[in-house]
Protein: Glutamine synthetase
Amino acid sequence: MSSSANQARKEAIRDNVMRPSRVVPYPSKDGKPIYTSEFFGESVFGLAQIAKALPKPAYAQFLRQMRGGRALDKGTADAIAHAVRIWAMDKGATHFTHWFQPQTGTTAEKHDAFLTLKTTHGPHGVEETKAIDAFSGSQLLQAEPDASSFPSGGMRTTFEARGYTVWDTTSPMFVQQGPHKTCVLYIPSVFISYNGDALDEKTVLLRSTQQVAKAALAVLALLEPVPQGAPPITSVVYTTLGTEQEYFLVDRALYVLRPDLKITGRVLVGALPAKHQQMEDHYFGHIPSRVLATMSEAELELYKLGVPVKTRHNEVAPQQFELAPIFEETSLAVDHNLLTMDVLSKVAHRNNLKVLYHEKPFKGVNGSGKHCNWSLSTGSGDNLLDPTIKPETNFRFLFFLLATLDAVQKHGSLLRAGIASASNEHRLGANEAPPAIISVFLGEHLTEVLNSIEESRPIKNFSMPNIQSIKLGGTALDVMVSTLPEISRDLTDRNRTSPFAFTGNKFEFRAVGSKQSPSFPMTLLNAAVASSLQDMAEALRTASGDKAFPSDADKFKVIRQYIASTKNVRFEGDGYSDDWRQEAARRGLPNITNCPDAFDQIIEKKNSAMLCKLGIFSESELQSRHYILMERYSKDLLLEANTLRTILAQQVLPAAYEYRAALASSCAQQKAIGVGSNCPELTTLNLTTPLVESLLVWIEKLDEAINHVHNASDDPSKEARASAKYLLPAMEGAREVADELETIIADKYFPLPKMSEILWF
Structure:
């Protein structure tokens, strides 16, 4: 058995080397490539297409509905449905689907055909039945999937199956390629239960964006008062998001020979190869040709889908890469991130590659994150987290900066819950990812700005200020090469060890996992900031007393109050160090090191009260989320434990037995022909004996750990804690022995592709 498995492994490696890259033609006209901007969004049915399809009054009504001003009437819905059907069918669409985000970490879709039957009835019954293509406004607005078949945390049972998907008008419809040159029309949607409870990730995200916008407008109205009866200076605020998506690409032929990669997304056994990332030569290195072909093909599809992908590069670990877009409104950015992951997976498959989004697919090399760059913007495009030239007098910036600091100070444990998962647990706190302690990095200059305001003193001059186009007192750097121009230095350095860092005009939430949807962590961040903005607005009203509008002195009073109260969450040093863990404990910052404890923060009184008060979650929705997260964590670990046990018993041990038999046979043959008394093979055989015996013991321990978890299965919380307590150490112990055996067993006996083969092609 092992010889055939080893042969399949060798053939996969050979085919990997010989396989040519796919060639996909770039869009062209008259034999010349066309600019990306000319075909960008050609597969999207957005506002421009709706405006062409609707009469001006109907289009105005649709815009009011999209902005929350009124319900969408049937006539307008029918007109949009008719227009989008014609547009989609002209592109080859045969089906449509409501595309939504259940609490599974991915998206869901059910395809329905435009085809229907129209029957003509006469006095003698049915006279004629013919096929027509149709799509009504009611079909556009909602559909009905089975709500009991998705995670609901007990909110839906098998006999309570009704649920609804509802078109999210703020996210444009689009078509994606299907089989046989056909297309499918995708309708971004929310997913709710029969009783209106949120069963998805998008509904709560949309609620949170509404709340943070409402709270931001209230603060701006106080900071920028206008005469009575005059329109406000700012009437629209929204959050923006840019997601840096990290991932691994591996050869698909090798991937299919690894049951652990196929089932769990990560390698459960495998010794670290001699060369991994220690040479520091992969980051920003030359992109391998097959990978670049895959990236380029994915980008072509994403551009047509209106996804503004901007950056591609090698990451730190071998076969690790990154794709990053331009910032967009948060809900749309989440849709586009999930679409990016889907498109990249499909394109990789066509190129005989496999995308791994798991946060830690390979032990010993860097894992993958999804850095979420978050900010707030006005309807006119002003970034509320832009410090400008003089941040010390920019009340807008100071209030929104401090509201974010206050949000992390008060609800850091909640943000920690938003990034917790069985897969991200392997990454957080390692030397390629932020620690589990949620703190904020501002940088030396901004820290000095806040300190100077608190102490009522002038700001320290860091160096000569550069030209006005350099923001926030940016400084010039002289690289001492006469042929090179003077370059501008950013306000802050980059602290890669910070989970939540200010990076010039936005916050980078670096602790989010690569596999997870950014929706849930962004929902919690929006909620926490909205709550802090409400508190700051109330503090400003109190400070202003009976005055019609707050004075500058009132504003500075509140600013100083929040500078002082948020000092503990600000940290400029090395987040990986033991000193920081001790210092964080002294500051009272939570260090939540395991998932079950992190999940409990969702229903912790302070956090749950804030989320329910804002109307982002109901109490039952929070309990449901808590249940689902605990249950998913246990299922993930049980899946890994059972897969590992199978690999050890059916592949690693048989390989060891076969190798030991060959060694013993060689020794016996040498003894039979009188080749000395010292058989070299005997030394290796003796090395394997205690390892094989130890591995058998660890398999028994794995069985015991799995039974412990099953015995707690009546309570998801107890089951999750049992999984963390028993499964994790048993899997780690078994892996250590198996990895050591791998380094001893002769290559031809080992059935699994090794990390050295997977990570280098």
